[in-house]
Amino acid sequence: MDKILILDFGSQVTQLIARRVREAHVYSEIHPFDVTIDFIRDFAPKAIILSGGPNSVYESDYQADPALFELGVPVLGICYGMQWMAQSLGGKVESGNVREFGYAEIRARGHSALFRDIQDKTNDQGHGLLDVWMSHGDKVTAVPEGFKVIASNDSCPIAAIADEDRKFYAVQFHPEVTHTKQGTAMINRFVLEIAGAAPSWVMKDYIETAVARIREQVGSDEVILGLSGGVDSSVAAALIHRAIGDQLTCVFVDHGLLRYKEAEQVMEMFAGNLGVKVIHVNAAEDFMKHLEGVSDPEQKRKIIGREFVEVFQQESAKLPSAKWLAQGTIYPDVIESAGSKTKKAHTIKSHHNVGGLPDTLKLQLLEPLRELFKDEVRELGVALGLPPHMVYRHPFPGPGLGVRILGEVKSEFVGLLQRADAIFIEELRNFGWYDKTSQAFAVFLPVKSVGVMGDGRTYDYVVALRAVVTSDFMTAHWAELPYELLGRVSNRIINEVRGINRVVYDVSGKPPATIEWE
Ligand SMILES: Nc1ncnc2c1ncn2[C@@H]1O[C@H](COP(=O)(O)OP(=O)(O)OP(=O)(O)O)[C@@H](O)[C@H]1O
Ligand SMILES: O=c1[nH]c(=O)c2[nH+]cn([C@@H]3O[C@H](COP(=O)(O)O)[C@@H](O)[C@H]3O)c2[nH]1
Ligand SMILES: NC(=O)CC[C@H](N)C(=O)O
Ligand SMILES: [Mg+2]
């Protein structure tokens, strides 16, 4: 089987590279940039891909072993990976005076194998133009010997380079994110054609492999699974249930930070659909008590994570042979918490199920979805026979309204937000927009502003509406909701939810913002 080696310099989107390679039906593994050259030789990669990363090559100790360029293996450098390649082979990298984050249009030049016949449009002179996603502050200012420039634009004259004899390619933009429209085509080109890897690795064997792995891991132990009613834990439950049947017990925690009527709905849905044991624990009082007086987002996340585990431990103590805690952790949870194996990335926020886990956890973790992205999890859910309305729900974060009430969480705020959020979601459905957005919700802002209602003065809180479109939740666009829908939601919230007199719409993309506000 042909294998691709991805060396991780700490990019937030390294897993997306693996995913694109997986989509080309080629097996890949991600390893830290500082593995030894012997490791690389033994791995026997068909090609090597160098990821992006947060550092600057000219002042960082994030340096791989340049001996990898002597192995006769094709190499593709992305962003930091390009900068490291250029610097290591005798080129120059400098801090740019413009930082580029977001869309850019580049012109492909010189008929390289990487871009041949791949373009979004052509300019007057017949040159191919590509819409790409950039996220960098440094740039290559001199190309190494043997290399030529294969793409450029005004702000980044050296946007891609190649030494085609040695099959070394490097791009300043990110072909692995969906915003680079031809990114998949470029990665396919590099992996399948330039490196010549055979497309023989198929996802349809995934369930069998996963089931076998779970059986082997768990043996005859019992497993407790944190079930939220969301997509990931439901799919994890179905998968684990298929593997070990009655050895699985699900625990649904009501922490008092759920959406309007959510607890009832989740219990109802599971009674009807999964055929697995579900225990409903009401822990609202404990969660709220521990959150009192706390306003720092990371601290809130850690507390919520700890309380979750507290509940799971209590419940597992009631089962004689429970040794495992299963969770629907998926890849984006891991990378944003920098809980990945390589620990080279920056922490953006601690997802409650990753960074929030305390060291005192007595159960072993079982996370069969840890390497998958949301849409892959959904595909798996469908293959496992879960109903579409469950598989295509919007995600809801484990810490729930706890990270949608900015600052300190108070019960009064929870009530206001639940009602505003329910109105927003109801109208989204009425207007046929629920399925056109990937995630939508209301955020409670603990600031007051002045309004006038019925000729009287009001001095009340603000709610922000957030709706995004994304396929993998790593990058996202704000949804271009119709004004009529926004107007209707705003009217209803201000009229129906006493205590809120202003509604705003969030028009920030990810990056630079994140989807949740905390
Ligand atoms: N209320 C809850 N009770 C029990 N476990 C929970 C709860 N909320 C979250 N979890 C656990 O934390 C994991 C991560 O939560 P997350 O919201 O990312 O996934 P999900 O709820 O399964 O799916 P979705 O992303 O669609 O909401 C869940 O898979 C689940 O194991
Ligand atoms: O289970 C979860 N526990 C968490 O702590 C958490 N934080 C964010 N999210 C969800 O992850 C996706 C990306 O969110 P961000 O852009 O805000 O990081 C979005 O879908 C968020 O709702 C979480 N899910
Ligand atoms: N995304 C990246 O890999 C960025 C590389 C480097 N830190 C820069 O700013 O240019
Ligand atoms: Mg959830």
Automatic annotation (TrEMBL):
<keyword id="KW-0067">ATP-binding</keyword>
<dbReference type="InterPro" id="IPR025777">
    <property type="entry name" value="GMPS_ATP_PPase_dom"/>
</dbReference>
<dbReference type="InterPro" id="IPR017926">
    <property type="entry name" value="GATASE"/>
</dbReference>
<dbReference type="InterPro" id="IPR029062">
    <property type="entry name" value="Class_I_gatase-like"/>
</dbReference>
<dbReference type="InterPro" id="IPR004739">
    <property type="entry name" value="GMP_synth_GATase"/>
</dbReference>
<dbReference type="Pfam" id="PF00958">
    <property type="entry name" value="GMP_synt_C"/>
</dbReference>
<dbReference type="InterPro" id="IPR022955">
    <property type="entry name" value="GMP_synthase"/>
</dbReference>
<dbReference type="InterPro" id="IPR014729">
    <property type="entry name" value="Rossmann-like_a/b/a_fold"/>
</dbReference>
<feature type="active site">
    <location>
        <position position="176"/>
    </location>
</feature>
<keyword id="KW-0332">GMP biosynthesis</keyword>
<dbReference type="Pfam" id="PF00117">
    <property type="entry name" value="GATase"/>
</dbReference>
<comment type="function">
    <text>Catalyzes the synthesis of GMP from XMP.</text>
</comment>
<protein>
    <recommendedName>
        <fullName>GMP synthase [glutamine-hydrolyzing]</fullName>
        <ecNumber>6.3.5.2</ecNumber>
    </recommendedName>
</protein>
<dbReference type="InterPro" id="IPR001674">
    <property type="entry name" value="GMP_synth_C"/>
</dbReference>
<dbReference type="InterPro" id="IPR022310">
    <property type="entry name" value="NAD/GMP_synthase"/>
</dbReference>
<feature type="active site">
    <location>
        <position position="174"/>
    </location>
</feature>
<comment type="pathway">
    <text>Purine metabolism; GMP biosynthesis; GMP from XMP (L-Gln route): step 1/1.</text>
</comment>
<feature type="active site" description="Nucleophile">
    <location>
        <position position="79"/>
    </location>
</feature>
<feature type="binding site">
    <location>
        <begin position="228"/>
        <end position="234"/>
    </location>
    <ligand>
        <name>ATP</name>
    </ligand>
</feature>
<comment type="subunit">
    <text>Homodimer.</text>
</comment>
<keyword id="KW-0315">Glutamine amidotransferase</keyword>
<keyword id="KW-0547">Nucleotide-binding</keyword>
<keyword id="KW-0658">Purine biosynthesis</keyword>
<keyword id="KW-0436">Ligase</keyword>
<dbReference type="GO" id="GO:0003922">
    <property type="term" value="F:GMP synthase (glutamine-hydrolyzing) activity"/>
</dbReference>
<dbReference type="Pfam" id="PF02540">
    <property type="entry name" value="NAD_synthase"/>
</dbReference>
<feature type="domain" description="GMPS ATP-PPase">
    <location>
        <begin position="201"/>
        <end position="393"/>
    </location>
</feature>
